[in-house]
Amino acid sequence: MSYFCMYLRKSRADSDTETVESVLERHCKILQDFAINSLGELIPEERIFREVVSGENIDDRPKMLELLRLIQSQNVTGVLVVDPQRLSRGDLSDCGTVIRYFRYTSTRIITPARTYDLSDRFDRKFFEMELMRGSDYLEYVKEIMLRGRIASVNEGNFIGSVPPYGYMKQKIGKSFTLVPCQEAENVQLMYRMWCEEGASISDISVQLDNLGIRPRKSPKWSVASIRDILRNPVYTGVIRWNCRKTVKKFLNGRLVTSRPISPENLWITAPGKHEAIISHEFFQKSLNRFDSSPKNCTSHNARNPFAGLIRCECGYSIVYQPSKTGSPRLHCTNQKNCHNRSILYNEVESNVLKLLSIISVLYSGLCTEISEICSLNLLSDPEIPANYKNLLLKSILKIIVIRRSIADYPGYSLDITFR
Q1: Rounded CA separation 409/90 (Å)
Q2: 305: helix, coil or strand?
Q3: Distance between CA 355 and CA 309 in Å, rounded?
Q4: Is position 162 within any domain?
Q5: Which residues pair with residue 49 across a beta bridge?
Q6: How far apart are CA 56 and CA 69, in angstroms?
Q7: What is the pLDDT of residue 404?
Q8: Number of domains in the chain
């Protein structure tokens, strides 16, 4: 039985004063009225796909991915949208994905202005033009918004979504500025402990937890959070922007997005409109202490073959800790809070090898690749680089998951838990 679906998404072309929910509700009413007049029926709620998250690419929009999977069933006659650009305003790759799905499933794209049948070359041409027009408009809007952000930062306004710890956002006119809140005293305490008392960042986190001072989202303070606070110039009355620029790159065949710390010469700083809670002299003392004890990385080679494969029962990663006098150990990065003991690296390695041997014997026909790896003793060979061993272990996990579920190995697990 064939049926129609509806896809709703808020665009940058919609007014900024409207919420996502209000825009989707307004578009839903437009399309439902059109469905009654043109199709003679209402679209039921279970066939309405409301995209409430913002994403430039199809991979970032879960409802769009769900819709594309649904139209492959060949039961969907058409999809109702307010205009074609709601389906995609991404790059040529996204446009091509949308066209292929709708073309080869013979699914029509129905708008109040026009119906597109992508099996027809003229409709397909018009649809491609609409998508490319939307893509060009998106790039233009992004350039305009970028110029507006830079101008607002230079005026001393705060344009971030989440204010830094110690401040809250306050709207003044059409822009936002920062206002100190009760957390400002905690920030000043961190700076005193770091600059005057000489406490380490780890000691500061423990003392804050003991005092009952909590971060906004986590139950415990992390070293990284306190380090960022002690290095952030916003507490001296300065606005910093572009510190973490969004970078897109391909990783294992997928386009992934990350926000690494940008070089300081790319930062945009300007005097802010907000009140400083740390003096420039005190902040410079903090930076000087960081500079006086730099961490020099002596090697870029991986040393832990189990990197990314083992986690503590508290959920944090397990790290490799070398020793000059004894054997290397593995311990939890959250050890100061979970209080779990460390373990000798050799014990973990021998147990993993023993487990793999059991699996290779029980399922010799299934896991011939594992048997070959175990017979070569690659994982126990000290001459084999740790990063190569890590790739071998990840390959073994893939073999097990692909050939047969982990659940098929009763009583055994490659997830080692530290207790």
Answers
A1: 44
A2: coil
A3: 15
A4: no
A5: 7
A6: 19
A7: 40
A8: 3
Q: Is the pLDDT of residue 308 over 60?
A: yes
C-alpha to C-alpha distance for 245 and 248, rounded to whole angstroms: 10
Tokens (6 digits) for 407: 């659940």
- The answer to whether residues 25 and 145 belong to one domain is yes
Residue 129, in any domain of the structure: yes
Q: Beta 167-172 vs 175-180: how paired, if at all?
A: antiparallel
pLDDT band at 340 (very low <50, low <70, confident <90, very high): confident
Per DSSP, the three-state class of 270 is strand
What's the CA gap between 320 and 394, in Å, rounded? 17
pLDDT tier at 326, thresholds 50, 70, 90: confident
Query: Does the pLDDT of residue 409 top 50, yes or no?
Result: no
Structure confidence by residue, pLDDT tens digits, 127-162: 888 888 877 877 888 888 889 989 999 999 999 889
Q: Output the six-digit token pair for 410.
A: 């009763």
Q: Distance between CA atoms of 123 and 291, rounded to whole angstroms? A: 63
Shared domain for 25 and 146, answered yes or no, is: yes
- Beta-strand ranges (E) seen in 20-106 are 48-51, 76-80
- What 208-212 contacts at long range (C-beta under 8 Å, 24+ apart), as own/partner pairs, is 209/337
Least Cα distance to 182 among 159, 157, 205, 216 occurs for 216
Rounded (5°) CA angle 397-402-407:
75
User: What would the two tokens of residue 370 be?
Assistant: 């594992």
Instruction: Examine residue 381 and state whether it is found in any structural domain, yes or no.
Output: yes
Helices (H), 268-365: 280-292, 335-338, 345-362
Query: Is the pLDDT assigned to residue 379 strictly greater than 60?
Result: no
> Quick one: 62 and 172 in the same domain?
no
The enclosing domain of 205 has a CATH number of 3.90.1750.20
